[in-house]
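User: Okay, second chain of the day. Same drill as before: sequence in, structure tokens out.
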Amino acid sequence: MKNIIYEDNDIIVVHKSGGIPVQTARLGQKDMVSMLKNYRAKKQEDLYIAVIHRLDQPVEGVLLFAKTKEAAAKLSSQSKERDMDKYYHAVAYNQTGKLLQQGTEGTLTDFLLKDTKTNTSKVVNANTKNAKKATLQYKVISIKDNLIMLSIKLETGRHHQIRVQMANAGMPLIGDQKYGLKTMPPIKGVDRNVALCSVKIGFVHPKTNKKMEFEIEPENKTFAIMQGCKDTF
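Assistant: Same drill. Structure tokens below.
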């Protein structure tokens, strides 16, 4: 598979393209799990593949999978205990009215409630039943007209978290069909997928206990509009 970044006996790290689900029950639709199982089958290996963390279907980026049950248990524990570093880049539309500057930093803390019927989440009052706390840090790394490119570090991993929180903060992501602006000025050169990419992940290898980091550049062409400035946390 051309999108494999790293592989050993315990893990596989891949670059998922936007539009491909991590895992799906839909017949005839390819997903990352089935693609990796096919890849292992061709090498006459055990077909075991464990999902450690997920990305929304329209979101691209670095994804980590385990090849053994032992590795899956250790990596899943890291993810649940927030010992796994996850960094994203996003391009958003600034409708806040604030004059944001390059280098502007902030923290968003909200309570999110997932609606399983519509597969959406929304910001609610902290006392709402089943609401979960969601926190992220962001930094403005590039500005062009009303577009802003952001570096985002997730502190929690909630359903559609970045998309929901940024939209609620007046910075909806470009290309987001669920939470983005319904009408906005036409922007030349934008991608059909949401302008959100998991650009970097850091974790401890389940067998060697060594710290590992993997970083990619987004394929999503919306990011090309914002080229010329790169800065991260």
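The mean pLDDT is 91.

User: Thanks, on to the next one.
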